[in-house]
Amino acid sequence: QVQLVESGGGLVQAGGSLRxxxxxxxxxxxxxxxxWYRQPPGKQRELVATIxxxxxxxxxxxxxxxxxxxxxxxxxxxxxxxxxxxxxxxAVYYCYVRRIGYSPYWGQGTQVTVSS
Length: 116
Fold this sequence. Notes:
Blueprint: E1 2-7, E2 10-13, E3 18-26, E4 31-39, E5 46-52, E6 57-59, E7 67-72, E8 77-82, E9 91-99, E10 105-106, E11 110-115
Parallel strand pairs: 2-11
Antiparallel strand pairs: 1-3, 3-8, 4-5, 4-9, 5-6, 7-8, 9-10, 9-11
């Protein structure tokens, strides 16, 4: 099992910034990708950004140029720096981990609210 602990959500004005963190612990061997998904109010969960071990990051078109994902492989921590936030970025953000040969793991979610 992999345990995920997220932090960094909150309320921010449009144009502001937030940084999310997610620390993975437990059976972290064979972790392949880490990343973030989000679920806006009344909508389905959607990809925000992912990053593979030694690979390039992958972003949703809606966040390209504004969000940056990074990973500390030694500490099994993934970060999401969110700049120029918009009201439409309001959502519950979920940390995501993929282990080779296992179903994905999800964090408990952290609320990000952007006021316009």
